[in-house]
Write a structure and sequence with these properties.
A hairpin with an 8-residue loop joins strand 9 and strand 10. The protein folds into three domains: 115 residues, Sandwich (Immunoglobulin-like); 104 residues, Immunoglobulin-like (Sandwich), CATH 2.60.40; 37 residues. It is built from four helices and 20 strands. 19% of the residues lie in helices and 42% in strands.
Length: 286
């Protein structure tokens, strides 16, 4: 039995009108994995088995779970390739679908899964809408002290899109970032009719304080026909340096401001003393 079976599933996204049909395909590279399963995962729910089969042709008769027999159709061209068809798409079919392959017939045995196909049955009256992408620089609080070597956080916000068929990738000076520095929301948030998702990139202070360093957020969006890319960038800052001339200018300005402050305070104090004296004088007269 292969310990490195690869499950390839496509397409990644499907946008279907109501009452349309949708088909997703699964391929696995090991003929020892006779058992093929398809699962449905509704938003916020656990996996639910739709159908399973062993082999293909007349031998591989699909075994559907409950009501799924009328809604779905499984086809299997050979041991390594199969497809799941949604007969008549309805809003209740909007979910992520996973295929899995195993050498055993029970769902408790080890199985290998594909990355999933996300199906969205489009809502009447809503058009496919591309995202607006904006990159937010680290906050002033984070960057207020250049000597603070704490990591800086750059935020990417993609908003106003429908459906939620998006992915987010960061790169720095053209090089993709794939490590733990990136934290992206697990799912897009629905705000009225559209979606919003955020991603955060954490970078060392010395990397942010490198003048001209380019930090780019790339949002991929499937528009129902193909995947388009939308980008937004920000540039690193040069670490604040105070030259001798600037230091002298700053200190002289501060000294002058302090003298003015003392002068104004003295005048204000004299004015208050005069008012007190006048009030006391009037009181003594009457």
């Amino acid at each position: 039995v292969s310990q490195s079976v690869l499950i390839t599933q496509w397409p990644r996204y499907i946008s279907s009108p109501p009452n349309g049909s949708a088909e997703m395909t699964c391929y696995q590279n090991d003929t020892n994995y006779d058992y093929l399963y398809w699962y449905q995962q509704l938003s916020g729910r656990s996996f639910q088995l739709i159908v399973s089969t062993v082999g293909y042709g007349w031998v591989g008769s699909p075994n559907y779970e409950g009501q799924f027999k009328e809604q779905f159709e499984l086809t299997r061209a050979d041991t390594m390739r199969g497809a799941l068809v949604v007969r008549t798409a309805a809003p209740s079919h909007s979910a992520v679908y996973f295929c899995a392959a195993s050498t055993q017939c029970d769902t408790a045995s080890e199985a290998y899964f594909g990355k999933g196909t996300k199906l969205t049955v489009l809502e009447p009256g809503l058009n496919v809408t591309k995202p607006k992408v904006k990159v937010l620089r680290p906050s002033a609080r984070e960057c207020g002290n250049p000597k603070d070597k704490a990591r800086k956080t750059i935020v990417c916000v993609a908003s106003g899109f429908y459906p939620d068929h998006v992915g987010i990738l960061w790169n720095i000076d053209g090089q993709n970032v794939t490590d733990r520095r990136v934290a992206t929301d697990n799912a897009a948030l629905r705000v009225d009719q559209y979606y919003r998702i955020t991603s955060r990139l954490s970078v060392p202070a010395e990397e942010w304080f490198t003048k001209g360093k380019n930090f780019t957020c790339i949002v991929s969006f499937f528009n129902g026909k193909n995947t388009e890319l939308y980008k937004s960038s920000t540039i690193g800052e040069k670490e604040f340096e105070l030259s001798a001339e600037k230091y002298l200018m700053v200190t002289q300005t501060a000294r002058f401001s302090y003298i003015i402050f003392i002068f104004k305070s003295s005048i204000y104090g004299a004015f208050v003393a005069f008012l007190v004296w006048r009030l006391q004088l009037v009181k003594n007269i009457y």
